[in-house]
Design a protein that fits this description.
heterodimer, A: 1 helix, 19% helix, B: mainly alpha, 10 helices, globular
Chain lengths: 110, 262
């Protein structure tokens, strides 16, 4: 009985999560010549976003941000999806760990 | 560039170095040899290469979040191994020693797969890019040596300490490393949108930045997170609580002939 009760609570949350995922704004970033394009992006604050990072270089890169708590390897000529936020208004730097001198960018949550 | 490579390699090896040193000190305390470590290390390296070679297809799983899911699974599996190690390390019998070696081997293999795959991909970029990979390899070797030195320092400090102090320190570090594993795994599942993300409950980056050397060391040893969400904090605390309780399970086959530490 308790199991059914718990399921009744959890199930709507799971469905709501999938519905929310369908409405998640998508933001695109391209990695080219070890640089991020665009290197600065405005995103809505307090909203979860789906970041699509396309690596157009032939070499791998690691998208990383201490402020966003995100870390993901993107192989050469591949793309990756990273869910970010919801974030408070502010600036959130990110970088390519494998080419840290050039691959720098930031998300601006407004 | 050379310094960046040293830092990248150091970051990947530090956590593994600390964990391996603790497990090795437990092994030395029980006089159960190092063959398990050699086998686990070899398996881990092979696993890391296989994982890195297949990272492209793995990343495409579960609508492009396969990398997060597999890494989270590896982290949770290491955590489970550490919990059982904490239970078994208090019991002295040949069966328990065999299980202990097996679990320590699993933990070491998995952490090498997890961290080694990233290093393998990193170095493959130098080879693919035609850049000076010998310079990169040399810098990486320095990073590896620093990570190994931290591990060696940890190991020798433990085996030269009194048995009781060593046991307490081993348990404390194992609990914190294990908590860090669960926190990282939880973060990965949030990144994959398998768990719900929320706004951080505090920001301690003004006190200790995760990008600083000490911040990275703290991250490697006890999963320091400057901006944790409530879910991450709960996962961390529950993980540390469970492994601490596991270490307190009464020992029923304790032998007074256990080899003392120096």
């Amino acid at each position: 009985m308790k199991f059914i009760y718990n399921l009744l609570i959890i199930l709507p949350l799971i469905i709501a999560s999938y519905v929310a995922q369908a409405d998640t704004p998508i933001v695109n970033i391209v990695i080219r010549d070890h640089l991020f394009y665009p290197s600065e992006l405005e995103i809505p604050a307090h909203t979860k976003i789906k970041l699509v990072v396309k690596n157009e270089d032939s070499t791998p890169e690691e998208f990383e941000s201490y402020e966003l708590n995100r870390e993901k390897i993107i192989l050469g000529n591949k793309q990756a999806i990273i869910f970010i936020g919801p974030l408070k208004p502010g600036e959130y730097p990110f970088f390519g760990e494998f080419n840290i001198l050039t691959a720098q960018g930031k998300l601006i949550a407004k | 560039m050379l310094l960046d490579i040293i830092i990248i390699v150091l970051r990947e090896t530090l956590e593994a170095g600390v964990l391996i040193s603790i497990l090795l000190s437990i092994s030395a305390q029980r006089n159960i040899g190092v063959l398990w470590l050699v086998l686990a290390f070899t398996l881990g390296v092979v696993g890391a290469v296989v994982y890195a070679e297949n990272l492209g297809s793995i990343s495409g799983w579960f609508e492009f979040v396969g990398q997060e899911v597999v890494n989270a699974f590896l982290q949770y599996a290491i955590y489970c191994s550490l919990v059982f190690i904490c239970i078994l390390r208090r019991k002295n019998s040949s069966t328990n020693y065999l299980n202990l070696k097996l679990l320590m081997g699993v933990a070491v293999s998995l952490i090498i797969v997890r961290e080694g795959a990233e290093l393998f991909v990193f170095y493959s970029s130098f080879i693919q890019g035609g850049e000076n990979w010998i310079k990169a390899a040399t810098s990486g070797f320095i990073g590896l040596l620093i990570g190994a030195s931290v591990g060696a320092l940890c190991f020798y400090s433990l085996i030269t300490a009194s048995a009781n102090i060593a046991r307490i320190v081993q348990q404390a570090i194992l609990s914190l490393v294990a908590g860090g594993m669960v926190l990282q795994a939880t973060q990965l599942l949030m990144q994959a949108d398998w768990l719900t993300s929320s706004i951080p409950i505090w920001d301690s980056s003004w006190l200790l930045s995760e990008s600083s050397v000490i911040g990275q060391l703290a991250y490697a040893i006890f999963g320091y997170e400057a901006t944790p969400s409530l879910l991450e904090l709960c996962a961390y605390l529950i993980a540390v609580f469970i492994i601490t309780i596991a270490s307190l399970i009464p020992r029923n086959t304790y032998s007074h002939n256990m080899k003392p530490l120096r």
